[in-house]
Design a protein that fits this description.
It holds the Pfam family Copper-bind. This protein is mainly β and 103 residues long. It has no helices and 9 strands.
């Protein structure tokens, strides 16, 4: 939790087509998500998989270059599982789940 009361998460991406961690849990409310690339070569993206999530989260990171970090902020009001993926490598299985627990 940040000093401003916003939940903070960090997810890493690398050259092996996975998110670390691939599963995260937050409560309803504001979230600040940082995606940190520890990749040497690959460029990644981050988005909540369109369609099928309890609530649409449209904030995304289009490009994260090797060694870079990008942050998005959003609010989740509905509990449930939210699928996310790398828009470049979804076909390689680079996906994850953010579980939102009701307060």
């Amino acid at each position: 939790m940040g000093a401003d009361g916003v939940q903070e998460l960090t997810i890493q991406v690398s050259d092996d087509y996975v998110f670390t961690p691939a599963t995260v849990t937050v409560a309803t409310g504001p979230v600040r998500l940082t995606v940190q690339s520890v990749a040497d070569e690959l460029t990644h993206g981050f988005r909540f998989t369109p369609g099928g999530n309890p609530q649409d989260i449209t904030e995304e990171i289009s490009v994260i270059g090797p060694g870079r970090s990008e942050t998005v902020e959003f609010e989740v009001d509905e509990a449930g599982d939210y699928l996310f993926d790398c828009s470049f490598h979804i076909g390689m299985g680079q996906t994850g789940v953010m579980t939102v627990a009701a307060d």
